[in-house]
Amino acid sequence: MNERIFFVLIFFFSRTNRSNNEAIDIELHRGNEGLGISIAGGYGSPHGNIPIFVKTVSKVGAAAEEGRLKKGDQIVSVNGEDLNGYTHEEAAEALRRKTNLIILRVIPS
Fold it and tell me: Rounded to two decimals, what is the model's pTM?
């Protein structure tokens, strides 16, 4: 799927499906393989000011091991730090902070 179409679909579904999905907390224990996710979106994104979303989940890493985080899930907060209004870089930095336990508040896609 073309990346632009992915972002348009994510943005559309983020606006239409949110009332059906409740936020959940996902605990990730950072190991040698890292978190194993990449993110997309953020304030000032080339695709507009959109929330932070999971772009990919690797086959290895904390997210793969935990099993619930999926491509397209919106990340609302990291360890209680609200990502609303964050740029992509600020959100990535929140995920990179050196803590072993990462608690993501996520709205499933």
Answer: 0.81
d(CA 107, CA 25): 9
SS3 105: strand
Coil, helix or strand at residue 4: helix
Q: How far apart are CA 24 and CA 7, in angstroms?
A: 22
Separation of CA 70 from chain center: 9
Where b means 16+ CB within 10 Å and e means fewer, 41-73 reads bbbebeeeebbbbbbebeeebbbbebeebeebb
Cβ–Cβ under 8 Å, residues 49 and 86: no
- Check residues 31 and 5 and name the one with the higher pLDDT: 31
